[in-house]
Design brief:
The protein has 85 residues and is mainly α. The chain has 5 helices and 2 strands; from the N terminus they run E-H-H-H-H-H-E. Helix 2 crosses helix 3.
Length: 85
């Protein structure tokens, strides 16, 4: 099966960022990513690369594989994984 972005992955990303009380600007600095790119990721206009997922996982203090579970779905899965570790 191939992977595709989960429906709603951008909402989970934003939810977790807000849960950690990190602003878009702070996330941009912490992940060394342009602010506009972070905005596009959270709006679902871009799909995160493996490199970005690694940096995001570091900021969220999570295993990158856990982060990938709520961003990339199997072909037959529509929704994101709802629980984040």
């Amino acid at each position: 099966m191939s992977k595709k972005p989960c429906v709603g992955y951008e909402n989970k990303m934003k939810e977790y960022r807000e849960k950690m009380s990190i602003t878009l600007e702070e996330l941009s600095l912490l992940t060394e990513t342009e602010l506009r790119m972070i905005e596009k990721l959270e709006n679902g206009q871009l799909h995160p690369s493996d490199d970005f997922i690694e940096r995001l996982a570091n900021v969220f203090q999570m295993n990158p594989f856990e982060v990938k579970k709520y961003i990339w779905c199997e072909e037959d899965q529509n929704e994101c994984i709802t629980e984040l570790s």
